[in-house]
Amino acid sequence: MADLKMMDRTFHFILTTMVERGHAPHFTEIAKAFSVPPEEGKKLLHELMGAGTPSWLYPDTDHIASFAPFNSYPTQYRITVEGQQKWFAQ
Q: 70-88 as b/e, with b when 16 or more CB fall inside 10 Å?
């Protein structure tokens, strides 16, 4: 299991990325951000998703579908900030 500090950093990276661009990063981007191999990025992602956060992966993939309060895929809940609508809510 990843240490809590690394899980916190992973959580922060995912949430920050979603705020910046409106969709979640891929596990390879997580790996690149922390200078670890892609498989380690995938492991960090799966451990975080299994830690009880209100988030989930798209079924049978390694793609983040939802990461509270955001959704990577379009929903009927649009979020607009300062005239920009690039986010969807859970």
A: bbbeeeeeeeeeeeeeebb
Grade residue 17 by pLDDT with cuts at 50, 70 and 90.
Answer: very high
Given 3-state DSSP classes, what are the helix, strand and coil percentages for the chain, each rounded to the nearest 5?
Answer: 40, 20, 40
Handedness of CA 8, 72, 85, 68 (dihedral sign): negative
**Which H or E run includes 88?**
strand 84-89
Query: Does the pLDDT value for residue 81 go beyond 90?
Result: no
- Neighbour count for residue 47 (Cβ, 10 Å): 14
Please report where in the chains the tokens 């009927």 appear, as a residue. 76
pTM for the full predicted model: 0.90
